[in-house]
Design a protein that fits this description.
By secondary structure, this protein is of the alpha+beta class. Helix content is 49%, strand content 14%. It contains nine helices and five strands, in the order H-H-H-E-E-H-H-E-H-H-E-E-H-H. A three-stranded antiparallel beta sheet has the order 3-5-4. Strand 4 and strand 5 form a beta hairpin. Helix 5 packs across helix 7. It is elongated, with a radius of gyration of 25 Å.
Length: 183
């Protein structure tokens, strides 16, 4: 039971409470589980993670249990967060990425025609971040490179292929009108 509880805490995006642990375990095992048994298991897990070999510890926050990094490693984790924050995409890069995702394979010229501006920097940033990749060369004059989304893009957005992208009609609002509506 300890390992099942540990797995629940690990898999939970937010803190998980005793009542939720109890419900999940009872539905999994088909047997009634006493709360004091869960509390004992949680205490056992908490004590085990206090050992120096573990970088995380079991904490109680707002009546929920979570694994959090031990205070000793806060500076290291903070550096990671700072490093990743610098990797955010600009609006131009997001627009370029969306065009590539929906129109792939696509050339830089085609992207620039859609956006109406030069896309060299955005494409370079997306390649550096490995969100797009070169998928070949077009048969047109000059054999321009064709771009498509990468496996990292698919992993990041939790889709297996481009069919998993939201349909454009689900995203675009139809109430784009100029002026006032006449009656």
């Amino acid at each position: 039971m300890n390992q099942q509880i540990e797995a629940l805490i690990y898999a939970s995006e937010y803190g998980i409470g005793i009542s939720e642990i109890k419900q999940v375990l009872e539905s999994t095992t088909g047997t009634d589980i006493e709360e004091h048994m869960i509390e004992a298991a949680l205490e056992s897990i908490r004590v085990r993670y206090l050992q120096e070999e573990y970088v995380v510890e079991l904490k109680t926050i707002n009546n929920g249990y979570q694994f959090l990094t031990k205070q000793h490693y806060y500076q290291t984790v903070n550096q990671l967060q700072t490093h990743r924050a610098k990797k955010k995409l600009s609006q131009a890069a997001l627009e370029t990425l969306a065009i590539i995702a929906y129109r792939q394979p696509i050339t830089k010229l085609e992207i620039e025609q859609i956006r109406g501006v030069n896309c060299d920097y955005s494409i370079q940033r997306l390649l550096e971040k490995e969100l797009i990749k070169i998928v070949g060369k077009a048969d047109s004059l000059g054999k321009p490179l064709l771009y498509g989304t990468s496996d990292l893009f698919m992993d990041h957005f939790g889709i297996t292929n481009t069919a998993g992208l939201p349909k454009l009609k689900e995203i675009i609002q139809e109430d784009n009108a100029i002026g006032e509506i006449s009656e």
